[in-house]
Amino acid sequence: MTAIVRADGLGKRYRGNWALSNCTLEIPAGSVSGLVGPNGAGKTTLLNLAVGMLAPTAGTIEVCGGRPGADAAQLAKVGYVAQDTPTYPGLTVAEHLRLGAHLNPRWDDAVAQSRVDRLGLDPGKRAGKLSGGQRAQLALTLGLAKRPDLLILDEPVSSLDPLARREFLQSLMEAVAEHELSVLLSSHVVSDLERVCDHLVVLVDSEVRVEGDVETLLNTHHRLTGPQRDTSRLPANQHLVSASHTDRQSTLVVRTEAPILDPAWTVGQLSLEDIVLAYMERAAPAGGVPKQATLEALR
Amino acid sequence: MIWLTWRQLRIQAAAVYALVAAAAVTLAITGPRLVRLAGKDGQIFDRLTQGDRNLFFTGIIVMAVAPAVIGVFWGAPMVARELEAGTHRLIWNQSVTRSRWLATKLGITALASALAVGALSLAVTWWSKPVDGAMSQTHGSLPSRLTPVTFAMRGIVPIGYAVFALVLGVAIGLVVRRPVPAMAITLVLYIFVQIAVPLWVRPHLATPIRENVSFSRQRMDGIMADASGKAMRITLNTGSQGNWVLTNETINAAGQATALPSWMNQCLPGPPAPGPDRSVVVEAPPIEGCLTRLNAEGYRQHIVYQPANRFWRLQWTETAMFLAFSGVLTWFSFWWIRRRVS
After folding, report:
1. Is A86–B85 a contact, with Cβ atoms under 8 angstroms apart?
2. In terms of CA atoms, which chain A residue is nearest residue B90?
3. Does B36 touch chain A (CB under 8 A)?
4. Which of A175, A192, A298, B135 is the most buried (most CB within 10 A)?
5. Is A223 domain-assigned?
6. Are residues A64 and A155 in the same domain?
7. Which domain holds residue A255?
8. Where are the domains of chain B?
9. How much is the average pLDDT of A56-64?
10. What Cα–Cα distance (Å) separates residue B309 from each residue in B156, B194, B243, B277, B316?
């Protein structure tokens, strides 16, 4: 497995506040990776570091084997659909494609044209007159026709209605299948990522909480329900993710590679959303508002 | 990149070039008459109509405003608008480094600014040539091309001002990141520079000529008195026309600037005779005696000036100075866009 994004001790500080700290991760080439976390967790900071919009304060990051944003060749390898999918309101759809063709040596005009046709975007229409979903599709078209090795998308669907959301992700997945590119996309909506991702990074409070293949995450996380007990006496191979207690009963989320042998526990399956929520819950300050409040449960 | 720059600039460029063209046509129509008038004899001032004089001063105002317009409308929004709308995240993630992006945009826009203001200055300079510094014995005069009123509105200096205003706007836009405040700050700073340079910088671009002149009827320029008839100041001319006088003050035998002696009050002419005809020169009491007495008591007139024949030398020096300022601001912009902007 080769890594398309490799971060080591990566950190970014703004005026004394760490927006991202001690981030170490490896995103495998060929994967569709999701970056999930509540608003303000540092997702955009991490993605901006990956495309070279920001320079790290600490640590290193390597994308497609090079330093992000180092030169034109590096820029050509990485596509970026930024948050709120920015486009030039005064330029038409056709002019955006022309812009892409002028500025990208690897530009694939056939891909761009056929996507615009398929989406039914009027080439003569100004981007400022497009709907949010159409604008996102236009930005995605620019990112795909650039033919990058890695396409990074920052909250591409957060401002879209559920239908446009589904269409966007669908066309993203079709393009991934067609062009064999790696994708890294962020969202604060787990259900969006659940549909499309095979690799997941959970970022909470500017730190990576868990990272791994979706399948592995599903197989190694369990919900244990049983009589109330002290969580410090768990077996060494079970990592406690979150715990909640009532007077009689304890409900734990644990991560373990080994089977659960203790007969006192009722072992339950967890969905990806449950796992993500468990990691965010752990980050919530005691007695405070749980972080999951900011996690939208949209389906 | 060139196509994109052109595409994003074309509306503003069309507006500015249309104004330049309109100004050039107006001047081309009215200009030849002035050349013919100047050919007749030296008395062009008396033949100018009110319209000519209005056009002369309009030309000065247009040339003063043009670089500011470029700085405010082309420079300040160039990067600030992208930063505000977030489109920098789109454009800086194409396969073009942001340095090259800025270099292309700045280069093309600077060229367009230099061409627009250069063409405008050429037209205005040509039109004003016959009338710059035109004088009448009795009615007054128009400023000569070396004086602060007109110097930066003639020749090649406006090009330096325009490029400087553009780069100033771009740099401020980069730092402020929002177009409207950037435009306001650019305007204020540009006006400050426009005022500060003729006041404090231009006089020193070439070492001015300093002379201590004795008083004589030929060199007399004027005597100013206050309402009570007390003589306040005396001014002499530099002996030739079109010079830019920086200092014109009376000094005593010790070489210090001084007020006029009180006996000078006797040398003043009385108030003008009442009546409609103001052009009648009120005969002053013979002033030669007073001037001789001033000379004899050791008074001299200290005159500091830039001579008229230094016009082009000062033009080149000031243009080079503004291009150097622009170079520093350009360097700063590239440094900032690489290090400080995300």
Report:
1. yes
2. A86
3. no
4. A192
5. yes
6. yes
7. 215-294
8. 2-206+309-339, 209-269+286-308
9. 95
10. 16, 23, 8, 38, 13
> Do A82 and A94 lie in a common domain?
yes
Are A189 and A259 in the same domain?
A: no
Whether residue A89 is contained in a domain is answered as yes
Reported as a single tens digit per residue, the pLDDT across A194-210 is 889 999 999 988 889 99
In chain B, the residue whose alpha carbon lies closest to the alpha carbon of A45 is B342
Across the range B235-263, mean pLDDT stands at: 88
Chain B nearest C-alpha distance from A76 (Å): 5
Q: What is the four-CA torsion angle of A288, A289, A292, A293, rounded to 10 degrees?
A: 180
Rg, C-alpha atoms of chain B:
26
Total domains, chain A = 2
Whole-number mean pLDDT of chain B?
A: 89
Indicate whether this complex's ipTM tops 0.85.
yes
Cβ within 8 Å, pair B95-A69: no
**How much is the pLDDT for B259?**
85
DSSP, residue by residue, A178-234: HHT-EEEEEES-HHHHHHH-SEEEEEETTEEEEEEEHHHHHHHEEEEEEE---GGGS
The domain that holds A33 is classified in CATH as 3.40.50.300
Distance from CA of B99 to the nearest CA of A (A): 10
Q: Is residue A63 part of a domain?
A: yes
Token digits of residue B132: 């710059």
Asked if B342's CB is within 8 angstroms of A83's CB, the reply is no
Q: Do B96 and A72 touch (CB under 8 A)?
A: yes
Residues of B in contact with A54 (CB under 8 A): 342
**Facing A75 at nearest CB: one of B87, B95, B342:** B95
